[in-house]
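Readers of this paper often ask what the protein records in our data store actually look like. The remainder of this section carries one protein's record, kept here as part of the documentation.

:::
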Amino acid sequence: MSRHWSFIVCDKKFFYPFALLLLTAGVAASLYFKDPIHFTRAGNFIIGTGVWMSMRSTLREGINRHKDLADSSPTVLGTNQVNSNFFNQIAFSIGDAQLQVHGFILVIIGSIFGSLGDIILKLILPSIFHA
């Protein structure tokens, strides 16, 4: 069974490095422009990626309203064949729940840097960012 594209796009092993890349870009922009506000903007982008990860289960719930009812059985109706779509939906819902937790973690991390990022940079690098 191949993984659905949405598992790959929203996989935590891609989003956490992406969040670190955003934070690094925020620090670099802050140092270049000598303005700590750019670091807080990076935190806001991390909030957006966390919300995107945590929205998957909500979006799939909306999609499932229009699903084929034949996929509600573990076997294909009228036969003894295994219904792979039924089991794929179970796997997707488990993956959605796990990614929702990681999305909320990214929202919390992004909120910390989005609201306190400039203060953090001013405390760490007071010679560059004058209070």
